Amino acid sequence: MSQTVDRAxxxxxxxxxxxxxxxxxxxxLGVHKSTALRxxxxxxxxxxxxxxxxxxxxxxxxxxxxxxxxxxxxxVREIAHPHLVRLNESxxxxxHLAVYEENEVLYIDKVESRYPVRMYSRIGKPVAITVAAVAxxxxxxxxxxxxxxxxxxxxxxxxxxxxxxxxxxFLRELEKVxxxxxxxxxxxxxxxxxxxxxPIRGADGRVVAAMSxxxxxxxxxxxxxxxxxxxxxxxxxxxxxxxxxxxPVKGTV
Length: 253
Hints:
Structural class: alpha+beta
Helix content: 40-55%
Radius of gyration: 22 Å
Number of helices: 9
Strand content: 15-25%
Shape: elongated
Distance between the termini: 52 Å
């Protein structure tokens, strides 16, 4: 299996040099044409290579899309992190950064609260997509038909009495979030945890990530946490400005 994977991956640098036919690929790998063809077909099925009308192969669009997505996610985390740290230093609460990937919303950065009560969220872990504030922002930015398709496929666990009960309610919430430009989770996932979130936008205005501040009731009430919303939104705007190449907003915190 490892040899097969190694051979398949060896095809990509070859095609990066330019289109190649089956014989050239087989010669480079040192394998029979039938073996090279099986590898190319697998890569083609995943969109990583493309067979041209002249029967030569080149790198596929899916590969570039994956590379672009990875670069954007890496960049947004790198750009956002200093802002998240400053926000955490200002308010003391847990700060998260999340993105939407492969039908999941994932945390890609976290700055821990300075208070003894900590959240169990982890970088790389999917969030509770039907209730999390960051998830609402990321899904609300999808075109309407995509929002509806996603909402209708989701399960709606009753984490608490405040959890989103069904697709209809979720779509209403997403529309509200889309209009107001921010989101909350006030006890929807855990009764004792509240969260406020704001979107990070790229140069085209689309939401590329979402950031949030979360805190337990024993540290701060929901109403008190909501007073931080202007600060959270200014931080998100500052990250958006830097990420999209606009002049960063000064005086974030």
